[in-house]
């Protein structure tokens, strides 16, 4: 419906604005040998490519399965982020035993920019102790918080919104001079401030930012949005555009990689389908770096013969190297949902999709100066808390022994109706995500054809402690957001509804509405599959970076970390390979 609401005229105007600053041209096929072929153009891959191509003698090719989406207003306009499905890998979980066999989606970005071209743009880093643990696990001191903090700074800068609103707790010194622009929301939803105040007093936590190393508290988060005209600032129109016209860099989009080729145990070529013409190509490379996200990366490795040997043999894939942990250790942030009716004062998505007056107003305001509801990022307010130890009595020590700065849950709300039956009403969707799950999922191949999606066992609430945690948090958040103080903004609970009170019925509501925050990590982890310099152990000339390389999942949304990991990996690779 939203697609139709963007008139041909406004599309043309947007095109005229953007075409004067058009994206660099990217297709110039050659069969040269490259120093590095980077597979996947998300935050990690594009940061790496930009850093490597600063060295003029280093020839880099980046292959991305998706298209260039940078002229599409669904991508550039923040509030249209939920209408970017044209650029998705439409992955879904395998039937999940904890969800009575439900198969929640696990969409991933498929365009230049990867997840950063389709995501909610929320920018956060979370608890610092996670990164110190990464350094310990991997033996790479560059992953410790102090060093990652510099990488977070070097990939971003902070810009005040041109119409700044009231006080927001953001520590400007936590940003540097990097390409991605970070700014605040231009104004608040009427629920935001009352919710923050209630959360602070009820949970006894401070109002903080999630960019300076803190894990626990509440925030109005900052977003990867350009303050001047409220458009998406993402990996392609920042790092990608910086590098794209360098003579030693080539970007090929619509280039779907099917396989990495080996001579013996040395990776030395990449084969892809140019899906614009339907022709296969093989390029030679001295080194291959896979940055294809946490689902695509293990899939490409396994298709190429690097993975659990028995699994590959069962699919008649010749084994190059038996690497049992490829595809294992899948972690994600899973949530369950509530639904509340929203008062007319609430600037929900419905106010510019279902309300004709509101829609006209929003379009006019955005056109004028990037203002109004279309310039806002959704789900900007969230709190992160630790649950009481008593929740886990008799269920082991995993959750209670996490370092003190780690939250167990994020409580957030979206103005997008996640469930189809509420799409014609003005509602908010409060959801609670378990951010340090005990359970681990896995990614395996369904077939040996690269065009078939892999099997994703997402492992929802898969240990007794994870299940106890979501049950507690569901009841806890429901009580908090249903408080009398908030009734004037969200007058009534629509889901699960007043008749749902027993633990059994609440568990059923959780099962019906569990979903993914789209933050998968860990499937080709540094310190197990990878050595401390991102190299796949047991073979030569092959590295993996970005979300799959994370050994443990972080406590906050994951985009910022993929930029910083790409940056850290670039420094490590340059130091090991290029500066001798
Ligand atoms: C819908 C959604 C909402 C999100 N919201 C937020 C948010 O608000 N805040 C936040 O911090 N994080 C968010 N995230 C997560 C964030 O976007 C990711 O953590 C981040 O993009 C991961 O970066 P990456 O570079 O590791 O991988 P990706 O961004 O996944 O990039 C991998 C790239 O590799 C390409 N690729 C994969 N397989 C192949 C192949 N065979 N051949 C060629 N190319 C291939 C993909 O098309 C993709 O472009 C969201 C993600 C999604 C999907
Ligand atoms: C928004 O501003 C940026 C930076 O000035 C510019 O590159 C981009 O083209 C603008 N986008 C639109 C849609 O106006
Ligand atoms: C690249 O190689 C293919 C087949 O190997 C060939 O058809 C094509 O002409 C080559 N392209 C260039 C630019 O050399
Ligand atoms: C802001 O960040 C700096 C590090 O960049 C830190 O030293 C300082 O304590 C932070 N201040 C607040 C108020 O969080
Ligand atoms: C290459 O991609 C095209 C277009 O998607 C498809 O029709 C074709 O079957 C693919 N070829 C191979 C060999 O995978
Ligand atoms: C529709 O939008 C207009 C303009 O923003 C607003 O005044 C009105 O209250 C909205 N209607 C409803 C039912 O929320
Ligand atoms: C993957 O995870 C599922 C669910 O936890 C489990 O049943 C299965 O054995 C795992 N598969 C592999 C290959 O590890
Ligand atoms: C609660 O009521 C709704 C609406 O009548 C119904 O669909 C649902 O099954 C009921 N749930 C329980 C647990 O009784």
Automatic annotation (TrEMBL):
Sections of the chain in a coiled coil:
none
This protein's record includes keyword Plastid: no
Q: Which Gene3D superfamilies match?
A: FAD/NAD(P)-binding domain (3.50.50.60), Glucose Oxidase, domain 3 (3.30.560.10)
Range of residues in the leader sequence: 1-22
The UniProt record lists the keyword DNA-binding: no
Superkingdom, natural source: Eukaryota
Annotated keywords: FAD, Flavoprotein, Signal
Glucose-methanol-choline oxidoreductase N-terminal domain ranges (all copies): 109-132, 293-307
**PROSITE patterns in the cross-refs:** GMC_OXRED_1 (PS00623), GMC_OXRED_2 (PS00624)
- The UniProt record gives the binding positions of FAD as 257
InterPro entries reported in the protein's UniProt record: FAD/NAD-bd_sf, GMC_OxRdtase, GMC_OxRdtase_N, GMC_OxRtase_C
* Annotated catalytic residues: 519 (proton donor), 557 (proton acceptor)
The cofactor named in the record is: FAD
Q: Name one GO molecular function term.
A: oxidoreductase activity, acting on CH-OH group of donors
Q: Which family does it belong to?
A: Belongs to the GMC oxidoreductase family.
PANTHER family, per database record: GLUCOSE-METHANOL-CHOLINE GMC OXIDOREDUCTASE (PTHR11552), GLUCOSE-METHANOL-CHOLINE OXIDOREDUCTASE N-TERMINAL DOMAIN-CONTAINING PROTEIN (PTHR11552:SF111)
This chain belongs to which protein, by name?
Choline dehydrogenase
Record the organism. Talaromyces proteolyticus
């Amino acid at each position: 419906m939203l697609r139709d609401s963007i008139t041909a005229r406004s599309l043309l105007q947007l095109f005229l604005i953007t075409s004067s600053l058009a994206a660099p041209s990217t297709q110039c096929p050659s069969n040269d040998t490259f120093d590095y072929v980077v597979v996947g153009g998300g935050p990690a891959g594009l940061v790496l490519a930009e850093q490597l191509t600063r060295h003029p003698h280093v020839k880099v090719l980046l292959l991305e399965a998706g298209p260039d989406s940078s002229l599409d207003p669904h991508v550039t306009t923040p509030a249209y982020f939920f209408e970017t499905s044209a650029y998705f890998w439409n992955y879904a979980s395998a039937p999940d035993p904890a969800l009575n066999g439900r198969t929640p989606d696990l969409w991933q970005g498929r365009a230049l920019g990867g997840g950063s071209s389709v995501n909610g743009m929320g920018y956060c880093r979370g608890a610092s102790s996670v990164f110190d643990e990464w350094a310990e696990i991997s033996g790479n001191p560059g992953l410790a918080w102090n060093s990652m903090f510099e990488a977070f700074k070097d990939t971003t800068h902070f810009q005040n919104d041109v119409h700044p609103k009231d006080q927001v707790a953001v520590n400007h010194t936590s940003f540097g001079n990097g390409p991605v622009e970070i700014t605040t929301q231009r104004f608040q939803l009427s629920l935001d401030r009352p919710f923050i105040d209630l959360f602070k007093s009820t949970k006894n936590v401070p109002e903080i930012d999630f960019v300076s190393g803190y894990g626990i508290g509440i925030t109005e988060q900052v977003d990867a949005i350009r303050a001047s005209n409220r458009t998406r600032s993402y990996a392609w129109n920042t790092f990608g555009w910086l590098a794209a016209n360098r003579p030693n860099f080539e970007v090929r989009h619509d280039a779907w990689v099917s396989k990495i080729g080996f001579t013996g145990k040395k990776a030395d070529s990449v084969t892809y389908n140019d899906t614009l013409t339907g022709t296969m190509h093989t390029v030679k490379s001295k080194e291959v770096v896979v940055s294809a996200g946490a689902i695509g990366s293990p899939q490409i490795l396994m298709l190429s013969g690097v993975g659990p040997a028995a699994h590959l043999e069962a699919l008649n894939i010749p084994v190059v190297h038996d690497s049992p942990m490829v595809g294992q250790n899948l972690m994600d942030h899973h949530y369950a949902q509530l639904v509340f009716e929203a008062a007319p004062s609430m600037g929900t998505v419905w106010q510019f999709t279902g309300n004709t007056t509101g829609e006209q107003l929003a379009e006019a305001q955005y056109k004028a100066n990037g203002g109004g509801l279309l310039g806002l990022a959704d789900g900007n307010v969230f709190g992160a808390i630790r649950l009481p130890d008593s929740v886990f009595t008799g269920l082991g020590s995993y959750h209670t022994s996490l370092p003190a700065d780690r939250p167990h849950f994020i409580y957030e709300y979206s103005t997008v109706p996640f469930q189809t039956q509420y799409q014609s009403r003005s509602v908010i969707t409060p959801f609670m995500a378990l951010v340090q799950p005990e359970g681990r999922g896995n990614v395996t191949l369904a077939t040996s054809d690269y065009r078939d999606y892999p099997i994703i066992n997402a492992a929802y609430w898969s240990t007794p402690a994870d299940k106890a945690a979501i049950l507690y948090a569901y009841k806890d958040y429901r009580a908090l957001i249903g408080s009398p103080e908030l009734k004037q903004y969200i007058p009534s609970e629509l889901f699960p509804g007043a008749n749902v009170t027993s633990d059994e019925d609440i568990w059923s509501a959780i099962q019906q509405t569990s979903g993914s925050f789209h933050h998968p990590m860990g499937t080709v982890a540094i310190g197990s599959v990878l050595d401390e310099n991102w190299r796949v152990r047991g073979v030569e000339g092959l590295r993996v970076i970005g979300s799959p390389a994370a050994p443990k999942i972080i406590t906050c949304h994951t985009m910022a970390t993929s930029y910083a990991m790409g940056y850290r990996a670039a420094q490590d690779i340059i130091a090991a390979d290029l500066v001798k």
